[in-house]
Design a protein that fits this description.
Elements: E1 17-20, H1 36-49, E2 53-57, H2 65-73, E3 80-85, H3 89-97, E4 102-108, H4 111-117, H5 122-138, E5 142-148, H6 155-168, E6 172-177, H7 184-198, E7 201-206, H8 213-223, E8 227-230, H9 244-254, H10 263-277, H11 287-290
Parallel strand pairs: 1-2, 1-8, 2-3, 3-4, 4-5, 5-6, 6-7, 7-8
Helix pairs in contact: 1-2, 1-10, 5-6, 6-7, 7-8, 8-9
């Protein structure tokens, strides 16, 4: 860590990794259904752009999702190709059948989800996570664990879950603001607390219900999250996710990171995703301005 202006300590990393979930969470936007060909094209363009990780889909949904994920896996991209899975061994089997061994396993973190959505308890969550993560690791998978609805969860329980995930062999923890209820000051505070306690890399996944997805993502980075989950054009369920373009622009402008993504290619990608999703795209205004260093 290095001291900042006024003596404040910077706890965040300069290096940042983007986890693109356009093909998973982005496709949950109302009315969006990419074809297999469109998913493959989007994955190729994301890889060419230099995105670190592509969350290719949910194989447990069946065909044509399996077809698309398998096709992307066969591309042998530079980007890590991963899948989204529930705490269900059948989900892991479906991912493995697609040739993917980078598995993201999501679990309910808030009592609202555990008790009222699933009618389970915290013990069930911990034991289910141990069983499924253990199965994935035994089959050669790299595992990241997602804390669904983490922004409404008890902080002590989050720390407990994170510690257990680390002991089971998870390489990263995703903090999901599932219903988009955070604001930037609280986001930075809670990510700083987790980063100091859990000893595992943190990814932040923000939703835009209050129009704060980009601000919360920047705050999470400043709090110590070096993995940022975004979508092209900010598409996603309800009000959408954090926009990749906005996150890049914010990090370049406010943090002077100089991330260096190719503006011309990003413009083409934004346009392609917007057209495939049947939505207007900010690319028509020129990402040369939007993401300039």
């Amino acid at each position: 860590m290095s001291p900042a202006v006024g003596g404040e300590m910077k706890v965040y990393m300069e290096k940042v990794y983007f986890v693109d979930t356009t093909l998973r969470d982005g496709e949950q936007a109302p009315g969006v259904a990419f074809s297999v060909i469109e998913k493959v094209c989007i994955a190729r363009m994301l890889d060419q752009l230099g995105v670190s990780q592509i969350e290719a889909g949910v194989p447990a949904m069946g065909s044509p999702e399996i077809e698309a994920v398998a096709a992307i896996s066969r591309l042998r991209l530079n980007a890590v190709v991963s899948t989204w899975n529930r705490m269900v061994i059948g989900d892991i089997k479906a991912s493995l059948a697609c040739g993917v061994k980078n598995t993201h396993i999501t679990l309910p973190a808030s009592d609202i989800h555990i008790k009222h959505k699933l009618r389970k308890d915290r013990f069930w969550v911990i034991e289910s996570m141990r069983r499924v993560v253990s199965y994935a690791k035994e089959h050669g998978c790299n595992v990241t664990v997602g804390l669904e609805d983490a922004s409404r969860a008890d902080l002590d329980f989050l720390i407990q879950l994170a510690g257990q995930a680390r002991r089971e062999g998870a390489s990263r923890l995703r903090f999901a603001d599932t219903v988009g209820m955070l604001e930037p000051f609280r986001t930075r505070q809670v990510i700083e607390l987790l980063a100091a306690e859990i000893g595992i890399d943190i990814e932040f996944h923000g939703h835009n219900d209050f129009g704060m997805a980009t601000a919360n993502t920047l705050a999470a980075y400043k709090g110590g999250a070096k993995y940022l989950s975004t979508t092209i054009n900010g598409i996603g369920e309800r009000a959408g996710n954090c926009s990749f373009e906005e996150a890049v622009a914010a990090l370049n402008h406010f943090e002077k990171l100089g991330l260096g993504f190719d503006n011309k290619l990003l413009k083409q990608l934004c346009y392609y995703v917007g057209k495939a999703a049947g939505r207007a795209t900010s690319a028509v205004y020129g990402p040369e301005i939007v993401v300039a260093n």
